[in-house]
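Hey, can you fold this one?
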Amino acid sequence: MRINNSWVRSHNTHAIAKKARARGRHFAAQERRFIDPSEANPAYIGRVGGVGEGKVIILYRGEYFSVPLEKSQQPVVGDLVLLETEEDDLTIREILARQSFIARLRGDASRRSHAGFEQQIIAANIDIAVIVASTLNPEFHPRFVDRYLVVAQNGGVKPIIVLCKSDLTEKRDPILSYYSQLGVPVIETSARTGNGIAKLKEQLRKRIAVLVGHSGVGKSSLINSLIPGTNLRTNEVSAKTGKGRHTTTSSHLYQWEKDSYIIDTPGIRSLGVENLDELALDTYFPEFEPYLGNCKYNNCLHLHEPGCAIKAALQSGNLNAPRYESYIRLLGEIRPALPGR
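Sure. Predicted structure:
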Protein backbone atom coordinates (compact mmCIF):
# COMPACT_ATOMS: atom_id res chain seq x y z
CA MET A 1 0.00 0.00 0.00
CA ARG A 2 1.47 3.34 -1.04
CA ILE A 3 1.33 6.13 1.54
CA ASN A 4 1.66 9.79 0.65
CA ASN A 5 3.25 11.68 3.54
CA SER A 6 1.89 15.10 2.61
CA TRP A 7 -0.30 16.17 5.50
CA VAL A 8 1.35 19.51 6.07
CA ARG A 9 2.38 20.48 2.56
CA SER A 10 0.48 19.58 -0.59
CA HIS A 11 2.06 19.59 -4.06
CA ASN A 12 -1.07 18.77 -6.07
CA THR A 13 -2.18 22.06 -7.63
CA HIS A 14 -5.66 20.68 -8.31
CA ALA A 15 -6.10 19.77 -4.62
CA ILE A 16 -4.64 23.08 -3.44
CA ALA A 17 -7.09 25.05 -5.58
CA LYS A 18 -10.13 23.08 -4.37
CA LYS A 19 -9.17 23.44 -0.71
CA ALA A 20 -8.41 27.16 -1.09
CA ARG A 21 -11.84 27.79 -2.59
CA ALA A 22 -13.55 25.89 0.23
CA ARG A 23 -11.67 27.63 3.05
CA GLY A 24 -11.86 30.98 1.30
CA ARG A 25 -15.62 31.11 1.71
CA HIS A 26 -15.34 31.10 5.50
CA PHE A 27 -12.53 33.62 5.73
CA ALA A 28 -14.14 35.91 3.14
CA ALA A 29 -17.37 35.93 5.16
CA GLN A 30 -15.61 36.93 8.37
CA GLU A 31 -14.04 39.99 6.71
CA ARG A 32 -17.38 41.75 7.06
CA ARG A 33 -17.22 41.47 10.85
CA PHE A 34 -13.55 41.61 11.85
CA ILE A 35 -10.61 43.90 11.14
CA ASP A 36 -7.27 42.82 9.72
CA PRO A 37 -4.57 42.33 12.41
CA SER A 38 -2.17 44.51 10.39
CA GLU A 39 -4.49 47.46 10.99
CA ALA A 40 -4.31 47.18 14.79
CA ASN A 41 -1.73 48.67 17.14
CA PRO A 42 0.03 45.62 18.68
CA ALA A 43 0.49 47.52 21.96
CA TYR A 44 -3.27 47.27 22.55
CA ILE A 45 -3.94 43.70 21.45
CA GLY A 46 -5.10 41.11 24.00
CA ARG A 47 -6.13 37.48 23.72
CA VAL A 48 -9.44 36.03 24.89
CA GLY A 49 -8.87 33.44 27.61
CA GLY A 50 -12.47 32.69 28.53
CA VAL A 51 -16.02 33.82 27.76
CA GLY A 52 -18.72 34.18 30.42
CA GLU A 53 -22.12 35.79 30.85
CA GLY A 54 -21.66 39.41 29.82
CA LYS A 55 -17.89 39.37 30.24
CA VAL A 56 -14.67 37.91 28.90
CA ILE A 57 -11.31 37.12 30.42
CA ILE A 58 -8.53 38.85 28.49
CA LEU A 59 -4.83 38.03 28.65
CA TYR A 60 -3.12 41.40 28.17
CA ARG A 61 0.53 42.20 28.81
CA GLY A 62 1.00 39.03 30.84
CA GLU A 63 -2.01 39.55 33.12
CA TYR A 64 -5.63 38.41 33.09
CA PHE A 65 -8.43 41.00 33.13
CA SER A 66 -12.20 40.67 33.37
CA VAL A 67 -13.65 42.86 30.60
CA PRO A 68 -17.35 43.67 29.99
CA LEU A 69 -18.82 42.26 26.80
CA GLU A 70 -21.37 44.01 24.61
CA LYS A 71 -24.22 41.95 23.16
CA SER A 72 -23.05 42.68 19.62
CA GLN A 73 -19.62 41.24 20.36
CA GLN A 74 -19.17 37.48 20.00
CA PRO A 75 -15.54 36.59 20.70
CA VAL A 76 -14.34 33.04 21.29
CA VAL A 77 -11.38 31.74 23.24
CA GLY A 78 -8.17 32.45 21.35
CA ASP A 79 -9.51 35.53 19.59
CA LEU A 80 -7.19 38.52 19.38
CA VAL A 81 -8.95 41.75 20.33
CA LEU A 82 -8.07 45.42 19.99
CA LEU A 83 -8.50 47.06 23.38
CA GLU A 84 -9.19 50.58 24.57
CA THR A 85 -7.74 51.59 27.91
CA GLU A 86 -9.06 54.26 30.26
CA GLU A 87 -7.24 54.43 33.58
CA ASP A 88 -7.47 50.82 34.85
CA ASP A 89 -10.48 49.82 32.72
CA LEU A 90 -10.34 47.86 29.47
CA THR A 91 -12.98 47.58 26.77
CA ILE A 92 -13.02 45.62 23.53
CA ARG A 93 -12.99 47.88 20.51
CA GLU A 94 -12.67 45.29 17.73
CA ILE A 95 -12.15 41.57 17.20
CA LEU A 96 -9.27 40.84 14.84
CA ALA A 97 -9.71 38.53 11.86
CA ARG A 98 -9.19 34.86 12.72
CA GLN A 99 -6.26 33.06 11.16
CA SER A 100 -7.53 29.57 12.08
CA PHE A 101 -10.39 27.97 14.01
CA ILE A 102 -12.03 24.81 15.35
CA ALA A 103 -15.80 24.53 15.09
CA ARG A 104 -18.59 22.22 16.24
CA LEU A 105 -22.34 22.13 15.66
CA ARG A 106 -24.91 23.85 17.83
CA GLY A 107 -28.58 22.91 17.71
CA ASP A 108 -30.49 19.69 17.09
CA ALA A 109 -27.64 17.46 16.02
CA SER A 110 -29.93 14.40 15.99
CA ARG A 111 -31.75 15.75 12.93
CA ARG A 112 -28.61 15.72 10.77
CA SER A 113 -30.00 18.35 8.40
CA HIS A 114 -28.70 21.75 7.43
CA ALA A 115 -31.73 23.39 9.07
CA GLY A 116 -31.22 21.51 12.32
CA PHE A 117 -28.05 23.18 13.56
CA GLU A 118 -25.42 25.82 12.89
CA GLN A 119 -21.66 25.94 13.02
CA GLN A 120 -20.22 27.27 16.29
CA ILE A 121 -16.57 28.28 16.44
CA ILE A 122 -15.18 27.24 19.84
CA ALA A 123 -11.54 28.34 19.52
CA ALA A 124 -9.59 30.60 17.18
CA ASN A 125 -6.03 31.47 16.13
CA ILE A 126 -4.70 28.01 16.93
CA ASP A 127 -1.47 26.44 15.75
CA ILE A 128 -2.14 22.82 16.74
CA ALA A 129 -5.26 20.74 17.35
CA VAL A 130 -4.48 18.01 19.86
CA ILE A 131 -6.97 15.24 19.09
CA VAL A 132 -7.24 13.43 22.41
CA ALA A 133 -8.33 9.79 22.31
CA SER A 134 -7.91 6.91 24.74
CA THR A 135 -6.75 3.33 24.42
CA LEU A 136 -9.54 2.09 26.68
CA ASN A 137 -12.46 3.40 28.73
CA PRO A 138 -13.72 4.73 26.35
CA GLU A 139 -12.35 2.65 23.50
CA PHE A 140 -10.46 4.19 20.60
CA HIS A 141 -12.74 5.23 17.71
CA PRO A 142 -10.83 5.96 14.46
CA ARG A 143 -13.86 7.43 12.68
CA PHE A 144 -14.08 10.13 15.33
CA VAL A 145 -10.38 10.87 14.80
CA ASP A 146 -10.90 10.99 11.02
CA ARG A 147 -13.68 13.51 11.53
CA TYR A 148 -11.47 15.70 13.70
CA LEU A 149 -8.63 15.52 11.17
CA VAL A 150 -10.97 16.95 8.55
CA VAL A 151 -12.33 19.65 10.87
CA ALA A 152 -8.79 20.71 11.86
CA GLN A 153 -7.66 21.01 8.25
CA ASN A 154 -10.79 22.94 7.31
CA GLY A 155 -9.95 25.46 10.03
CA GLY A 156 -6.32 25.77 8.97
CA VAL A 157 -4.98 23.94 12.04
CA LYS A 158 -2.21 21.32 12.13
CA PRO A 159 -3.45 18.13 13.89
CA ILE A 160 -1.64 15.76 16.21
CA ILE A 161 -3.11 12.70 17.93
CA VAL A 162 -2.57 12.03 21.63
CA LEU A 163 -3.47 8.57 22.87
CA CYS A 164 -4.17 8.81 26.61
CA LYS A 165 -4.33 5.99 29.16
CA SER A 166 -1.56 4.12 27.35
CA ASP A 167 -0.87 2.12 30.52
CA LEU A 168 -4.33 0.47 30.53
CA THR A 169 -3.72 -1.88 27.60
CA GLU A 170 -1.03 -2.85 25.12
CA LYS A 171 -3.59 -3.26 22.34
CA ARG A 172 -3.37 -0.61 19.59
CA ASP A 173 -5.54 0.00 16.55
CA PRO A 174 -3.49 -0.55 13.34
CA ILE A 175 -4.82 2.74 11.97
CA LEU A 176 -2.52 4.60 14.39
CA SER A 177 0.59 3.58 12.43
CA TYR A 178 -1.21 4.60 9.25
CA TYR A 179 -1.82 8.10 10.68
CA SER A 180 1.89 8.34 11.47
CA GLN A 181 2.77 7.42 7.89
CA LEU A 182 0.43 10.16 6.69
CA GLY A 183 2.51 12.66 8.65
CA VAL A 184 0.21 13.08 11.66
CA PRO A 185 2.23 12.80 14.89
CA VAL A 186 0.85 10.18 17.31
CA ILE A 187 1.97 10.50 20.94
CA GLU A 188 1.07 7.97 23.64
CA THR A 189 0.66 9.38 27.15
CA SER A 190 -0.31 8.27 30.63
CA ALA A 191 -1.37 10.69 33.35
CA ARG A 192 -0.64 7.97 35.93
CA THR A 193 2.94 7.16 34.87
CA GLY A 194 3.87 10.43 33.15
CA ASN A 195 4.77 8.57 29.96
CA GLY A 196 4.84 10.79 26.87
CA ILE A 197 4.22 14.11 28.67
CA ALA A 198 7.72 15.50 27.96
CA LYS A 199 7.42 14.52 24.29
CA LEU A 200 4.04 16.23 24.05
CA LYS A 201 5.42 19.40 25.63
CA GLU A 202 8.06 19.57 22.91
CA GLN A 203 5.32 19.54 20.29
CA LEU A 204 3.33 22.28 22.04
CA ARG A 205 6.10 24.62 23.17
CA LYS A 206 5.87 28.19 21.77
CA ARG A 207 2.51 27.37 20.20
CA ILE A 208 -1.19 27.77 20.86
CA ALA A 209 -2.81 24.34 21.06
CA VAL A 210 -6.43 23.33 21.50
CA LEU A 211 -7.37 20.01 23.12
CA VAL A 212 -10.38 18.35 21.53
CA GLY A 213 -12.04 15.01 22.10
CA HIS A 214 -15.02 13.20 23.58
CA SER A 215 -15.81 13.47 27.28
CA GLY A 216 -13.94 10.92 29.36
CA VAL A 217 -10.94 10.44 27.07
CA GLY A 218 -8.61 12.22 29.51
CA LYS A 219 -8.32 15.87 28.44
CA SER A 220 -8.53 17.26 31.99
CA SER A 221 -6.05 14.70 33.31
CA LEU A 222 -3.73 15.57 30.44
CA ILE A 223 -3.84 19.27 31.31
CA ASN A 224 -3.20 18.47 34.97
CA SER A 225 -0.08 16.59 33.83
CA LEU A 226 1.06 19.35 31.49
CA ILE A 227 0.42 22.15 33.99
CA PRO A 228 0.99 20.94 37.58
CA GLY A 229 -1.24 22.76 40.03
CA THR A 230 -4.12 23.25 37.61
CA ASN A 231 -6.17 20.55 39.37
CA LEU A 232 -8.97 20.35 36.82
CA ARG A 233 -11.80 18.08 37.90
CA THR A 234 -11.98 14.71 36.14
CA ASN A 235 -14.88 12.29 35.80
CA GLU A 236 -15.14 8.56 35.40
CA VAL A 237 -16.64 7.09 32.25
CA SER A 238 -20.16 5.73 32.65
CA ALA A 239 -20.15 1.92 32.73
CA LYS A 240 -23.63 1.95 31.15
CA THR A 241 -23.00 4.22 28.16
CA GLY A 242 -19.21 4.11 27.83
CA LYS A 243 -19.24 7.90 27.63
CA GLY A 244 -17.81 10.48 29.98
CA ARG A 245 -19.71 13.32 31.57
CA HIS A 246 -18.64 16.85 30.72
CA THR A 247 -16.07 18.13 33.23
CA THR A 248 -15.26 21.20 31.12
CA THR A 249 -18.38 23.23 30.32
CA SER A 250 -16.75 26.02 28.32
CA SER A 251 -13.44 26.66 26.60
CA HIS A 252 -10.54 28.08 28.62
CA LEU A 253 -7.02 29.21 27.73
CA TYR A 254 -4.10 28.28 29.98
CA GLN A 255 -0.55 29.62 29.72
CA TRP A 256 1.94 26.93 30.77
CA GLU A 257 5.16 28.56 29.58
CA LYS A 258 6.12 31.85 27.96
CA ASP A 259 4.36 32.05 24.57
CA SER A 260 2.93 28.55 25.14
CA TYR A 261 -0.83 28.14 25.56
CA ILE A 262 -3.37 25.33 25.83
CA ILE A 263 -7.08 25.73 25.17
CA ASP A 264 -9.32 23.17 26.86
CA THR A 265 -12.71 22.58 25.24
CA PRO A 266 -15.87 20.79 26.40
CA GLY A 267 -16.29 17.19 25.29
CA ILE A 268 -17.76 17.44 21.81
CA ARG A 269 -20.32 14.92 20.63
CA SER A 270 -21.83 16.94 17.77
CA LEU A 271 -18.87 17.51 15.49
CA GLY A 272 -20.41 18.05 12.09
CA VAL A 273 -19.06 18.68 8.61
CA GLU A 274 -22.24 19.93 6.95
CA ASN A 275 -20.68 23.32 6.23
CA LEU A 276 -17.91 21.79 4.11
CA ASP A 277 -17.84 21.79 0.32
CA GLU A 278 -18.60 18.28 -0.93
CA LEU A 279 -16.21 18.74 -3.86
CA ALA A 280 -13.37 19.71 -1.51
CA LEU A 281 -13.82 16.94 1.07
CA ASP A 282 -11.41 14.63 -0.75
CA THR A 283 -8.60 17.19 -0.32
CA TYR A 284 -8.76 16.65 3.46
CA PHE A 285 -7.64 13.04 2.96
CA PRO A 286 -3.94 13.51 2.08
CA GLU A 287 -3.49 9.95 0.84
CA PHE A 288 -5.99 10.79 -1.93
CA GLU A 289 -3.73 13.58 -3.23
CA PRO A 290 -1.76 11.63 -5.89
CA TYR A 291 -5.04 10.68 -7.58
CA LEU A 292 -6.95 13.98 -7.41
CA GLY A 293 -7.39 15.52 -10.82
CA ASN A 294 -7.03 12.13 -12.53
CA CYS A 295 -10.71 11.18 -12.44
CA LYS A 296 -12.70 11.20 -15.68
CA TYR A 297 -15.07 13.86 -14.33
CA ASN A 298 -13.95 17.07 -12.59
CA ASN A 299 -16.87 16.87 -10.15
CA CYS A 300 -16.23 13.22 -9.24
CA LEU A 301 -17.24 12.38 -5.66
CA HIS A 302 -15.55 8.95 -5.81
CA LEU A 303 -18.75 6.97 -5.31
CA HIS A 304 -19.81 5.02 -8.41
CA GLU A 305 -18.67 7.35 -11.19
CA PRO A 306 -16.89 5.70 -14.15
CA GLY A 307 -13.20 6.45 -14.51
CA CYS A 308 -12.71 7.33 -10.82
CA ALA A 309 -9.00 7.33 -9.91
CA ILE A 310 -9.73 7.07 -6.18
CA LYS A 311 -11.89 3.96 -6.61
CA ALA A 312 -9.24 2.40 -8.85
CA ALA A 313 -6.55 3.06 -6.23
CA LEU A 314 -8.78 1.56 -3.55
CA GLN A 315 -9.43 -1.59 -5.58
CA SER A 316 -5.71 -2.01 -6.29
CA GLY A 317 -4.89 -1.79 -2.57
CA ASN A 318 -3.15 1.60 -2.71
CA LEU A 319 -5.67 3.25 -0.36
CA ASN A 320 -6.80 2.31 3.14
CA ALA A 321 -10.36 0.93 3.06
CA PRO A 322 -11.45 2.18 6.54
CA ARG A 323 -10.25 5.69 5.67
CA TYR A 324 -12.23 5.59 2.43
CA GLU A 325 -15.28 4.48 4.44
CA SER A 326 -14.78 7.50 6.71
CA TYR A 327 -14.74 9.71 3.62
CA ILE A 328 -18.02 8.18 2.43
CA ARG A 329 -19.67 8.67 5.83
CA LEU A 330 -18.61 12.30 6.00
CA LEU A 331 -19.75 12.89 2.44
CA GLY A 332 -23.09 11.35 3.38
CA GLU A 333 -23.53 14.00 6.08
CA ILE A 334 -22.78 16.81 3.65
CA ARG A 335 -25.27 15.29 1.19
CA PRO A 336 -27.92 13.44 3.26
CA ALA A 337 -29.24 11.56 0.22
CA LEU A 338 -25.93 9.77 -0.31
CA PRO A 339 -25.13 6.31 1.07
CA GLY A 340 -23.21 6.27 4.33
CA ARG A 341 -26.05 7.85 6.22
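The longest helix spans residues 13-30. Let me know if you want another pass with a different chain boundary.
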